[in-house]
Specification:
The protein is mainly α. The protein folds into 2 domains: about 60 residues, Orthogonal Bundle (Multidrug-efflux Transporter Regulator, Chain: A, Domain 2), CATH 1.10.1660; about 45 residues. It has 5 helices and 3 strands. Strand 2 and strand 3 form a beta hairpin. It is rod-shaped and about 130 Å long.
Length: about 140
């Protein structure tokens, strides 16, 4: 299938291997499926809608699901995706937190490098000056 924004019902039916009537029926049954219609009312499908139709076709024709069974399966998959999105969101927040800590540690390290290290103060012993006692002063 060539790369386009929208595909006609004929192109989609040929790609999936179902009739136009089947596509129109699935459109009524699955609320997620709402192809764009031009001014003349011609249905135009996006790639995402085609992928969704392929999933419906696989579930009903290959796996033997009923329409209700396919709806349930798709709903369960959507819930799994929602759980996955929660996990991904939490991981993104953790990543931001850790990157913030890393940035703070780097800036602290840079500041530490810019400040000259303090040299230890060495106290040298001063030579002792002996005081002369009175007897020594007389001499």
């Amino acid at each position: 299938m060539e790369d386009k924004l929208y595909y006609s019902i004929k192109e989609v039916a040929d790609e999936i291997g179902v009739t136009y009537a089947t596509l129109r029926f699935w459109e009524k049954e699955f609320k997620e499926l709402r192809p764009f219609r031009n001014k003349r009312g011609v249905r135009l499908y996006t790639k995402n809608e085609i992928e969704f139709l392929k999933t419906i076709c696989y579930l009903t024709k290959t796996c033997g699901y009923t329409i209700e069974g396919a709806k349930t399966w798709l709903k369960d998959e959507k819930n799994k995706d929602a759980d996955s999105l929660e996990v991904i969101d939490t991981l993104i927040q953790m990543k931001r937190f850790l990157l913030n800590i890393k940035s703070n540690l780097k800036s602290s390290a840079i500041k530490a490098k810019q400040t000259p290290p303090q040299q230890p103060v060495i106290v040298e012993e001063q030579p002792k000056i002996e005081e002369k006692t009175e007897t020594q002063q007389d001499n």
